[in-house]
Specification:
Layout: E1 5-11, H1 14-17, E2 30-31, E3 34-35, H2 36-39, H3 42-47, H4 49-65, H5 70-77, E4 82-88, H6 94-98, E5 103-105, E6 108-115, E7 125-126, E8 144-148, H7 158-166, E9 170-174, E10 195-200, E11 212-216, H8 219-230
Parallel strand pairs: 1-4, 1-9, 4-5, 9-10, 10-11
Antiparallel strand pairs: 2-3, 6-7, 6-8
């Protein structure tokens, strides 16, 4: 493939699984033994901000200790073929730490915080280390909360992601079963992509349009195969 490509990588939890990051929700509906409603909704924050803060502190600690895997580094290799944008549902920063230059976080970035007040999307603040606490206060006077999009909240960069997908020549969906909406609906905007791949150990079981090439593989093996196909 000699012409430079406009490549969009749409990644989900399976992307980071090989780094030891637990997928967001397993078969029993729990996340690290917590019900999603206890830790990942605005109502949970209103009910018990200390619990929610500590939950994300522990997730942040795990993410800081993790390292990018071969799949993350494979995405960086794609930059030799053209312009690459990573649109990720993941709240970790492993794409950036692997070296990806252009990453759009649909559901936020756990390494950052934001106000819990009405101006939540005005500014994001890096978290030094891995802890927030009740004394972590935003300049607007409200307590800082994790920069994470919870269930029931809007996805701030959804429209930007949709526009970028519309411009893509190549779409690579990796490590997501496309179950979480509205993010999962974004692939419908890739109307100009002439090559579409979906990488998942159970790709054959996923319901995607017929123009997708399904690769039944874990993230690292799948991205290596896509790189091989794009270089033909």
């Amino acid at each position: 493939m000699k012409d430079l490509l406009n490549i969009v990588v749409f990644s989900g939890a399976g992307m980071s699984a090989e780094s030891g990051i637990q997928t967001f929700r397993d078969s029993n509906g729990l996340w690290e033994n917590y019900a999603i409603e206890e830790v990942a909704t605005p109502q949970a924050w209103q009910k018990d901000p200390d619990l929610v803060t500590e939950f994300y502190n522990q997730r942040r600690k795990t993410i800081i200790e993790a390292k990018p895997n071969k799949a993350h580094h494979g995405v960086v290799e794609l930059e030799a073929l053209g312009e690459v944008l990573v649109i990720t549902q993941n709240i970790d920063d492993l794409h950036e730490r692997a070296g990806s230059q252009n990453v759009l976080h649909l559901h936020g970035n756990i390494r950052q915080s934001k106000s819990s007040g009405p101006n939540q999307e005005k500014a994001y603040y890096p978290i030094e280390g891995w802890k927030l606490d009740k004394n972590s206060i935003c300049p607007d006077g409200y307590r800082l909360r994790p920069h994470v999009v919870w269930f029931g909240e809007d996805v701030p960069c959804y429209e930007k992601a949709a526009l970028k997908l519309h411009e893509a020549d190549v779409l690579i969906v990796i490590g997501t079963s496309l179950q979480v909406y509205p993010a999962a609906g974004l692939i419908q905007y890739a109307t100009n992509a002439h090559m579409k791949y979906i990488i998942d150990p159970k790709a054959d079981e996923l319901h995607v349009p017929s123009d997708f090439t399904k690769l039944n593989a874990k993230a690292s093996a799948g991205i290596a195969e896509v790189i091989r196909l794009l270089n033909q």
